[in-house]
Request: fold
Amino acid sequence: MRMDESGVSPVIATILLIALTVVAVGIVAVFLTSISPGSPTVNTQVVLENWTSTSVTFYHRGGQTVNVSDLKLLKSGTEVTGATWEPSSGTWSVGQTLRISKSGMGITENDVITLVYKPANQQLFSENLRFWTG
Reply:
């Protein structure tokens, strides 16, 4: 073994360790940048104020203001389309009611009524309807 070759092995090992670190950092960076942040949820308290066979009325009890266009109504798991929303646009905020009506909607006892915030597919309200008897 020649005297000038004694330092080659530690130099190569150092270069390999640096290369391995760069590759590991690259893999972590790609992984972290590929994660989507997800849809924002809302913190809103909703109660059912009233229901009939053709309409439901919700009351915004507290929490964040929601755009009416970001909501959908489900009746027993099926989206109710062609309904009239009051208010029909803008926002729904604390202290306001939201009425959704449709002729022939056919809401009956035991239907499950669900109000969904579409951007996050988040249930704001869901309940199996019952008639009140006093």
